[in-house]
UniProtKB/TrEMBL annotation:
Keywords: Phosphopantetheine, Phosphoprotein. Gene3D superfamilies: 3.30.300.30, 3.40.50.980, ACP-like (1.10.1200.10), Luciferase, Domain 3 (2.30.38.10). GO terms for cellular component: cytoplasm. GO terms for biological process: amino acid activation for nonribosomal peptide biosynthetic process; secondary metabolite biosynthetic process. This is Tyrocidine synthase 3. GO terms for molecular function: phosphopantetheine binding. The keyword Lyase does not apply. It comes from Xanthomonas hortorum pv. carotae. PROSITE patterns: AMP_BINDING, CARRIER, PHOSPHOPANTETHEINE. Residues 735-810 form the Carrier domain. It comes from the Bacteria.
């Protein structure tokens, strides 16, 4: 039962009550009794809550002067309006029959249509669940509608203890729209989910005011825009790599020569060229050369498993490959694929002309690159990004300053779409691009590079952003703008960075690869941080929040993010069905296209967006978008695994981690028929490491007899047990030996949250991952007073195998730190 409210007149003071809609049109309807009008009002309220809360059943209390009636409704958005009206009618009739013997003559007279008593003095609406979103805030909801008769007109006042006056006014206007729609006979046969819900004024705000970020970016390709920068300031520094510097003229010259060579190999518009090399001037020259030849680059991570690289090459079928010697040794390249080695002293193309090749067919709608992301079916999907998509991101942006005075740091892997912003934000605007040292970078190395080269613009994943400590922040004072994203930023971290870097503009950036890196941004000011929204659509981008019927949701109500504008990618390479599923026409802008992101958000009153999570089971871990289905498919192919489920878990303030739950096949055995424990975490991790990149490897494996199911037979993810990491560490515990192992075990146990770590324990089997590895190396560097590269931990993840270090004094320093 809903709490009994105070119904005094003071409760409905003008500042607390929505301006009521007037019922004069309804009174003029022929053969419309007061009871029928009440039914329509309740039906409108039921439809509204079904559309905005998606929680049923609804509890409705009608308060009369002499009695109270309780109704229960089960509205669904797929029901027709007439079906919901019938449901309301039936609930009223059922309740009337139930109380008929208890009501006096005056009450019976009210049921026959007496105006004074057919209408309750107060209507209260609630839902049975603990929380719901009605006004844009999560709270235990209670709506109150006060109905009163004045000069043969009925006024309806709306009140809620969890709403502002503006929000209540807006709900009243939406109910009025629904009531108007219910008057029309044709609406009775329409699903409730398609009924007009938004007043014209709110619809204009959603479509125009919140999406008014127009921009006029150049309608030219990336190669031409770079050439314009080289012509404008040929001696300006374009690249900085250690002690090496290249001017725009030098970079343009070398890229032109390689581009001629690529053209001779048959590269042209929409031809893919694979590229894999360490961060170096040769890498950037190769990227520019591909674009100048009209092609599109396909980044390959030579550290990825060979099986995965082979699958990408088979799917993409590049017409050539650019790589350095180290990558060529590790890439599983077909013998017939033309290869250009980027790190040659005297390359074959050094005698080609230094002017740009002519590619008359090249247009801005041709491809710039293809990036592969995790796929839900177990197969990675290649996102095809066009040159105009990139130009929209970095040319004349309204969310960040991209001018010739900036210095960008290229630290993201080329296969990660943040590199698009870092690379082309600099080179298409005449700025300097500082290349971070080759290899996997930890946060200390990034901050040191920023300090050394006076970098002004930096991008960090949310995971790295959260780890910034006072010492590292003290190295970032050259920054003018710091962008972070890829996952949710915490308010505490934002406040900490804002206070440490008062002259740096902090920006929370959101966007999927399919919408070219960034779609919305929020610029934090110097005031106290009260929340961390993902901001407004950036210039040239349109964002709609839609429900399951692809109708606009009201302000404050959760909806799925659909992204439109020139940042939307072409689609998925060789996956037309998936492209048709995720990309489609913009129903609100003729000729436009939309990408369905699968992310949930809600509009704020000021036009910024709050991120609320995912619609589907896709995961975001350490800045990487991960489809658990791809990991599950790989697990099911492992020896001894009958079924598997992968989820992301976060315990307290710890980092989000992947956890795999596996069901054993009957009696797994080796080739000799001997039973083996094929589900041992180390065994499973080693098997997955042959197929998946590091960021997709689960941090923990839990063996179950069967997967928990709900009453309806679906997987009950909430019933999956948390991994017992302490038990894993204790199961095969062998005491550590020597000062070296004592130091390592102390650091591992502290950061992994374990009571003890043994000498044969595997860092990643205990729940370690790349961000924790970074913190381990940081702690060891504090203790040892020298660099400890992350690559050492990845190469030797078992404690007793981790290389020898001088620890006698280091262990004492660790205890004092």
């Amino acid at each position: 039962m809903l709490p009994h409210p105070d119904t005094s007149q003071a409760q409905y003071a003008p500042e607390e009550t929505a301006s009521a809609f007037v019922w004069s049109r309804w009174q003029a309807l022929p053969r419309s009794t007061e009871a029928e009008r009440l039914e329509r009002l309740l039906a409108a309220v039921a439809i509204y809550l079904a559309r905005t809360c998606e929680q049923v059943p609804l509890q409705i209390r009608l308060r009369y002067s002499d009695r109270t009636r309780q109704l229960t409704l089960h509205p669904r958005v797929h029901d027709t309006c007439s079906a919901i009206c019938e449901q309301v009618h039936g609930a009223l009739d059922e309740r009337a029959l139930h109380t008929a013997g208890q009501e006096d003559a005056q009450s019976k007279k009210a049921q026959r249509g007496d105006v004074t008593h057919a209408w309750p003095s107060l209507i209260e609406i609630g839902v049975t669940n603990d929380s719901a979103v009605i006004f844009g805030a999560t709270a235990t909801p209670q709506l109150q509608l006060q109905i009163c008769q004045l000069r043969k007109r009925f006024r309806c006042g709306l009140h809620s203890s969890h709403s502002t006056r503006r929000q209540a006014l807006r709900v009243g206007a939406r109910l009025r729209c629904l009531l108007t729609a219910l008057e029309r006979g044709e609406a009775q046969h329409s699903p409730a989910g398609l009924l007009s819900l938004l007043p014209a004024s709110e619809r204009r705000r959603l479509l125009q005011t919140f999406n008014c970020s127009h921009t006029r970016f150049p309608q030219r390709g990336m190669a031409m825009l770079f050439a314009e920068q080289a012509a404008r300031a040929p001696q300006a520094t374009a690249l900085v790599c250690g002690e090496t510097r290249l001017s725009y003229a030098e970079l343009d010259l070398q890229a032109n020569r390689l581009a001629h060579h690529l053209c001779a190999l048959g590269v042209g518009p929409d031809c893919l060229v694979a590229i894999s090399a360490a961060r170096s001037p040769a890498l950037v020259i190769g990227l520019l050369a591909i674009l100048k030849a009209g092609g599109a680059y396909l980044p390959l991570d030579a550290d990825a498993p060979s099986q995965r690289l082979s699958a990408l090459l088979d799917d993409a079928r590049p017409c050539a490959v650019l790589a350095d010697a180290d990558a060529l040794r590790r890439l599983p390249l077909p013998d017939t694929l033309p290869v250009c080695r980027l790190d040659q002293v005297n390359p074959a193309w050094s005698d080609f002309p230094g002017t740009a090749p002519e590619v008359p067919a090249l247009q801005p709608h041709h491809l710039a690159y293809v990036l592969y992301t995790s796929g839900s079916t177990g197969v990675p999907k290649g996102v095809m990004v066009e040159q105009r998509n990139v130009v929209r991101l970095v040319c004349a942006p309204d969310y960040v300053d991209c001018d010739a005075s900036q210095r960008f740091l290229l630290a993201a892997p080329l296969a990660f779409d943040a590199s698009t912003f870092e690379l082309w934000g600099a080179l298409l605007n005449g700025a300097q691009l500082v290349l971070a040292a080759p290899g996997t970078l930890d946060l200390d190395a990034i901050c040191a590079q920023v300090q050394q080269h006076r970098v002004t613009t930096l991008w960090l994943t949310a995971g790295l952003f959260e780890l910034l400590d006072p010492v590292q922040l003290s190295q970032l004072h050259s920054l003018r703008q710091l962008l972070a994203g890829g996952d949710v930023l915490s308010r505490a971290a934002v406040e900490r960075v804002n206070q440490a870097l008062p002259h740096c503009q902090l920006i929370n950036a959101y966007g999927p690869t399919e919408a070219t890196t960034f779609s919305s941004c929020h610029r934090f000011d110097e005031a106290a941080v009260t929340s961390v929204p993902i901001g407004r659509p950036i210039a040239g981008t349109r964002i709609y929040l839609l429900d399951d019927q692809r109708e606009l949701v009201p302000i404050g109500v959760p909806g799925e993010i659909y992204i439109g504008g020139p940042g939307v990618a072409r689609g998925y390479l060789n996956q037309s069905s998936l492209t048709a599923e995720r990309f489609g026409e913009d129903p609100f802008l003729p000729g436009g296209r939309l990408y369905r992101s699968g992310d949930l958000a809600r509009w704020r009153e000021d036009g910024s967006l709050d991120f609320l999570g995912r619609v589907d089971q896709q995961l975001k871990v350490r800045g990487f978008r991960i489809e658990p289905g791809e990991i599950e498919a790989a697990l099911r192919r492992c020896t001894g695994v009958a079924d598997a489920v992968v989820v992301a878990r976060q315990e307290g303030a710890a980092d989000k981690q992947l956890v795999a739950y596996v069901i054993a096949s009957p009696q797994p055995s080796d080739s000799n028929g001997c039973d083996i424990d094929a589900l041992a975490p180390a065994t499973l991790r080693a098997a997955l490491a042959q197929k998946l990149p590091e960021h997709m490897l689960p941090s923990a494996f839990v063996r179950l007899q069967q997967l928990p199911l709900t009453a309806s037979g679906k997987l009950d993810r909430r019933a999956l047990p948390a991994p017992d990491r302490a038990a894993v560490a204790a199961a095969g515990y062998v005491p550590r030996q020597g000062a070296n192992e004592c130091l390592l075990a102390t650091v591992w146990a502290e950061l992994l949250g374990l009571p003890q770590v043994g000498r044969h324990d595997h860092f990643f089997a205990l729940g370690g991952h790349s961000l924790l590895a970074m913190r381990v190396c940081g702690r060891l560097q504090t203790a040892l007073m020298r660099q400890v590269p992350m690559a050492l931990l990845f190469a030797h993840p078992v404690l007793c195998e981790l290389g020898p270090v001088n620890t006698s004094e280091a262990h004492q320093r660790l205890g004092r730190s």
